[in-house]
Structure formats: C-alpha cells, structure tokens
Amino acid sequence: MTSASGLWARTRQRAYAEITAVAMELFLADGFEQTTIDEIAAAAGISRRSFFRYFGTKEDVVLGHLIAEGQALRAALERRPDGEDVWTALRAAIFSLEEADGDEERMLAVSRMLYRTPSLRARSIEKHLRWYDDLVPEVQRRLGGGGDDLLRARAIVGCAITCLDVAGEAWTDGAASRPLAHYFDAALDAVRPAAAG
Amino acid sequence: MTSASGLWARTRQRAYAEITAVAMELFLADGFEQTTIDEIAAAAGISRRSFFRYFGTKEDVVLGHLIAEGQALRAALERRPDGEDVWTALRAAIFSLEEADGDEERMLAVSRMLYRTPSLRARSIEKHLRWYDDLVPEVQRRLGGGGDDLLRARAIVGCAITCLDVAGEAWTDGAASRPLAHYFDAALDAVRPAAAG
DNA sequence: GACTGACTGGCACTGAGTGCCATACCGGCA
DNA sequence: TGCCGGTATGGCACTCAGTGCCAGTCAGTC
Predict the structure, then answer these.
(1) Distance B49 CA to D14 C1' (A)
(2) InterPro entries per the record (chains A, B) (predicted)?
C-alpha cells in the first residue's frame, strides 16, 4: 500500500489494458483461434512468457472481466431492498451493471466471436458458473428457511443466468436491434409466465 | 451396409467400449487431469495416434455419450402427446432416458469427477449446448405461433437443462440419497412455483 | 555499494491435438 | 494364386498452449 506499490498497480493496470487492446484487435481481424499467443506477445512488445504472467489463458483476455462482474453483481444484489422479490432483485442487479459502452458495433463483433468460438463459449459458461458462488448465498438468504434452500437458490440463479445467456444470443443474432433487457424479459416470461418481470 | 461393414461397425463398437473402460479405470484411479493419453493408449494396447481416431479429445471419453443422448432426448420429446404442457413433456422425455445402471457407486464417482474437473465441466456444458439444437425445434413447434418463439423455446430448453444440471449436482453432493427426479422437481418448483411438476 | 522485491526474457519441457506417409489386414476379383 | 481397393493402424514430425526454472534488470532502501 506504499506509493510504490500503487504505482506498480497502475503500471500493471495499464499493461493489462494495452495487451488486451492489442489482442482484441488481432482476434477481431484474424479470429480467436487463428491468433497465437506468440503473435499477441510480439504485437504487444512483450515476451510470450510475460503474457502468461498477465493472463492465465488466451480466453482470459476476452473473458477476464467476467470474474469481476460476478462480484459486482453480488454487491448490486445485496444493495436491493430486503423485501423485494428474488427475481425482481436479480433482474435489477443485472441491469444496474449494464455498461453502455458506446461502441456497439465492436461489442457486437466481440459477442459474435464469443458465441461462435467453442473454446470461448465453454470458458464463458465456466466463468458464469463462478457467479453461482457469488450469487447463491444472497439468494439463499432471501429465500429464508426450508431444507432445500441451497438447491432452490442454485436453480433460480442458474435459470437467471441462462435467461441472460439466451438473451445475449438473441441480442447478437438480432444485431442489437433491441436492448438486452428486452430479450431478457421475454426469456424470463417464457419460463415464468405468471410473474410479470 | 454389407456384412463386412457391419462387422467393422461391431469391431469398432467393441474398440470404443474397451478403450472407454480402460480409460475410465485410469481416470477414477489417478484423476482425469493426471491421466495422460499416452497412458490410456498404452493401457488399451493401441498407439497414441489411434486413440485420436476414436476420440477427438480426452474429454470425449467421458462425455461422448452426451451427443447421442441429445438425439434420444429429442426423439423421446417428439413421442410425447401433442396437447401436453411443454414442461411436462420435457420432464417426461428426460426421465424416460434415465438408465438405472446398477453400479450407483461408480456413477457417483464419475459424477463427482465431472463436477470437480474444470475442463470436463466446461465440455459437459458445451455438449449440453448442442441439446439446444436437438430440443428447441420441437419445443418451438409446441409453442406454436408468436414472433419470439425461438427465444422463448431457447429459454425453456435452457432452464430445463439448467435444472437438470443443478439437480445432478445436488444428487452428487447428496451421494444419491434420493433419485435424480426428486432434485429436478424441486429445482423446477423453485423456478416455476405455480405450475406443479 | 550491497540488499530486497517485483517484473522480465529466454530456455526447456510436458501434453493435447493434427497432418502425413508407410504398412498391414481383409474381402473381392481375375 | 496374385492383384486391388478400402479401412485401420503405427510412427514421426509438427504446432500450440501452458508451466517451471533461472538469470538478469530496474526501482527504492539502508
């Protein structure tokens, strides 16, 4: 926590951002699987070995933010009022995070890559599984009581994430013609027709 | 379709079964990640190169059956009466396939390995994604009409699979103390409390 | 000027997965 | 009996992801 470590942290942060930017350019230009780590390292002006000091896997360059998002999601969920319906709270938490990054065209390109590259898709879902650990405790708390709370909480979190995933795919297929929330609500309505959003 | 090709098919089938059996023994004894393909090949009496002619990846040894199961699931779903509720039909289709393999202890061990090995878990979910292609058309047909049928069908199939997955985890955690269907129904009830089973 | 701590590069290694080629087996056919 | 085409096989070399190890560099510190 000295000024030195703060400097290092900022430097490291900048390095992360720079490597990510360079790598994403290559991914979008040549395809994810076609781009090797040697190419990324060369383009970023670092050694192959150093790349792996910043990212555990090639997929992490694209999906690294998902870990942090899971924690942010948990925090957002915990901020929702106690009496609120679980589904309403989950929906509100999810869309409190939605970043309007401006460059929609780029987000679409990234999203297409994500849905069409098997290894990325798999890792993405694997990261989503970690969200369970973040969200289930709070959902379980809100369910309050009952022997099979854990199972019920997992099912609810799982289906919410699944709806988000399905919505993301529809958003990508539909070229972002409607906001993600629209697709999410439609997906949730298909699963829970009685409860309106 | 000559007798020769039939013979080959049977031989191949036997080879598949034998390699799978040998590999599973090694996986359960030493762990999935610890077991190399060289070891499997040596134990099965084939070359490393031949292993890859039977299985595309190491994960496929454990998860290969999931592809066939998706198609069987589709067939089972199509056999359900037309007027039946989609969720009821899906549930019935899923549990018409449940094989009581007898050796529950072994199934538990395999299941534990599956849930605890990241690469296996990821691939397993990836295979489950293929089930979408198998099941969504029939679910969509049953929904009959409406502009966002595809999205709705995907959401329903996705949540059904998610509930199955959550149920599988609970079954594994609970050491198979109750049938899988019990956990599945509980999971589905958490998501759709109004509609009973 | 030695010391510590964090980052870096280079090298060698394992292990998954692929492409290529030569070979062996088996049934059919002249 | 000998040739032929299809299929399975083994071996080799290769790419690429990811890891471990060691040596060097560049702060800031006493």
Answers:
(1) 14
(2) DNA-bd_HTH_TetR-type_CS, Homeodomain-like_sf, HTH-type_TetR-like_transc_reg, HTH_TetR, MftR_C
- φ, ψ (nearest 5 deg) of residue A115: -80, -20
Residues of B with Cβ-Cβ distance to A121 under 8 angstroms: 126, 129
Reading the block at residue A46, the tokens are 């670092």
Superfamily grouping for domain A64-191: Tetracycline Repressor, domain 2 (1.10.357.10)
ipTM of the complex: 0.86
Dist CA A144 CA A137 (whole Å): 11
Q: Name the residue ranges covered by the structural domains of chain A.
A: 3-57, 64-191
Q: Which residue is it, tokens 């379980």?
A: A140
* Chain position carrying tokens 């039946």: B84
- In the CATH scheme, what is the code of domain A3-57? 1.10.10.60
Q: What is the pLDDT of residues B100-133, one digit of tens each?
A: 667 888 899 999 999 999 889 888 988 898 899 9
Region class of A148: left (phi > 0), else alpha (psi between -120 and 50), else beta: alpha
